[in-house]
Amino acid sequence: MDLLACPVCKNFPLQLIVFNKVNSVTHTMNSCDEYCSYSRKKIADLKNKRISLNCKVCSQINIVEGILHCRKCRRWYPIIEEIPHMLPDELRNGVEEIKFLIKNKEKIPHTILREGRPFNILQL
Q1: Among positive and negative, which fits the CA dihedral 78, 102, 116, 90?
Q2: Burial class (CB in 10 A: 0-12, 13-18, 19+), 118
Q3: How far apart are CA 50 and CA 78, in angstroms?
Q4: What residue numbers bound the domain in which 101 lies?
Q5: DSSP assignment of 11-35
Q6: How much is the pLDDT for 94?
């Protein structure tokens, strides 16, 4: 998450919404340079407030399914089988992504369901 920006508008950081996750037994501990998705704060803010980072716990989490959301341009990108699908609009499969929204509608914020780009459930 420390490296991912919206491929369309280049906004950083993206909001991470997790549907399913698993804990990994093996992990490599990476510390983020700019943004901590685990605490949803900038690293500089955490260090300024002397809040300890929980990198070991965070690095053991594998996101199986979820959404990456750009608050600036309102685009959302599905995470399916641990892989973020961050394609430009013209390469995305609208039918498959609307199915993804419907399947997970109880876990997705209403703003994404109704106003998400390039697809939302109001397009049905």
Answers
A1: positive
A2: middle
A3: 34
A4: 15-123
A5: -SSPEEEEEEEEE-SS------SSE
A6: 94
Report if residue 1 sits inside a domain.
no
Tell me the per-residue pLDDT of 19-35, one tens digit each, with 9 for 90 and over. Answer: 999 887 665 666 778 88
- Of the chain, the percentage scoring pLDDT greater than 70 comes to 93
Indicate the residue type of 71.
Answer: R
What is the identity of the amino acid at 30?
N
pLDDT at 123: 74
Q: Is residue 62 part of a domain?
A: yes
pLDDT at 107: 97
In this prediction the pTM is 0.80
Query: Number of folded domains in the chain?
Result: 1
**3-class DSSP string for 57-77:** HHHCEEEEEEEEECCCCCEEE
- Whether residue 87 is contained in a domain is answered as yes
* Amino acid (1-letter code) at residue 60: Q
At residue 117, the pLDDT reads 96
Question: Which residue's structure tokens are 């093996």?
Answer: 26
Q: Is residue 8 part of a domain?
A: no
Q: Which two tokens stand for residue 46?
A: 């955490």
